[in-house]
Amino acid sequence: MTRSLKKGPYVYDRLLKKIEGKRPEDMGVIKTWARASVISPEMLNFTFGVHNGKDFIEVKVTEDMIGHRFGEFSQTRKFTRHGGKMQKELEQKQKLAEVAAAKAAKASGDAKKK
């Protein structure tokens, strides 16, 4: 659900005060908990540390991000993986391929030494 046009976008005023009159090159990471704040054009090229509930995810603001919210770029849930028998078989094949590649690299290295 979007915000009413007569109200305008919600931009956290403390963030604007932090970047007011400063250059992105001079500033480090600006930490923020304001995930609901809309990214405005004044924030372009600044790097923000957006809190995801556990730690701060660094988000460098680009032109494409303007109008979106900070929370969209700092995921709160971590995807581990899908499991099951098929996944285990794929992982075993991948591991065997890596071992075979390492043996081949070692064999070619030994051949070059002789």
SSE layout:
Layout: H1 13-19, E1 29-32, E2 47-51, E3 56-60, H2 85-113
Parallel strand pairs: 1-2
Antiparallel strand pairs: 2-3
Short précis:
The chain has helices at 13-19, 85-113, and strands spanning 29-32, 47-51, 56-60.
**Could you name the CATH homologous superfamily of the largest domain?**
Ribosomal protein S19/S15
Order of helices and strands: HEEEH
By DSSP, the count of extended strands is: 3
Contiguous uncertain segments of 5+ residues: none
Give me the Rg, rounded: 23 Å
CATH architecture of the largest domain: 2-Layer Sandwich
Structural class given helices, strands, pairing? alpha+beta
Strand content: 5-15%
Query: Strand order of the main beta sheet, please?
Result: 1-2-3
Overview of this structure, please?
The chain is an alpha+beta fold. The chain has two domains: 13-73, 2-Layer Sandwich (30s Ribosomal Protein S19, Chain A); 80-114. It is built from two helices and three strands. The protein has helices at residues 13-19, 85-113; strands at residues 29-32, 47-51, 56-60. Strands 1-2-3 form a three-stranded mixed beta sheet, with no helix packed on it. Strand 2 (47-51) and strand 3 (56-60) form a beta hairpin. The longest helix is centred in the C-terminal third of the chain and has 29 residues, at 85-113. The protein is elongated.
